[in-house]
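ok so for the tutorial part 2 we go from a plain amino acid sequence to predicted structure tokens. step 1 is just haveing the sequence, like this:
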Amino acid sequence: MRKACIMLIAILLSMMPLNALAETANKEKMAVQKTQTENYKGFRLDDQINCLGLAVYHEANNQTQSGKLAVAHTVMNRTRSGKYPPTVCGVVFQRYHGRTQFVFAGWSAKRLLPKDTLGWRDAIKVAEQVFNHGGHDPTRGATRFFNPRLTSVSAPHGVRIGDHIFY
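step 2 — the prediction. this is what the tokens look like for a chain of 167 residues:
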């Protein structure tokens, strides 16, 4: 019995460095996750309004107000569809086969930061409006959109708003 206890203690002692190593690795993983959600200057990428604003800004900054609203509604439609993550940030940063659904979502945190202050303010206003109040969805429930000038995707029954087709 004494021999078995000594062996158990020896095994436990030999495992301690591995546990410490695992704990260190876990702390490093958490630090990386925090870095991924926190941009410099306090900009957070896990805030739902910021995520929706980023989608509006990067996908529709050069579009009319209707085009911006359509992008925001499309993201919100995805959160309710059951086929996509249930949060705005989950939708915006979702990966499928290793690629992000929105091109900008794969960029570095520094590149994600909006450079056009007025465009960013407008994107946030649209994001807040659609996130908090919903309103009329000009896309008729679309969960996807594309710009036909930039891709060869075709949508048989889409709604054209600005440069995009929503389906």
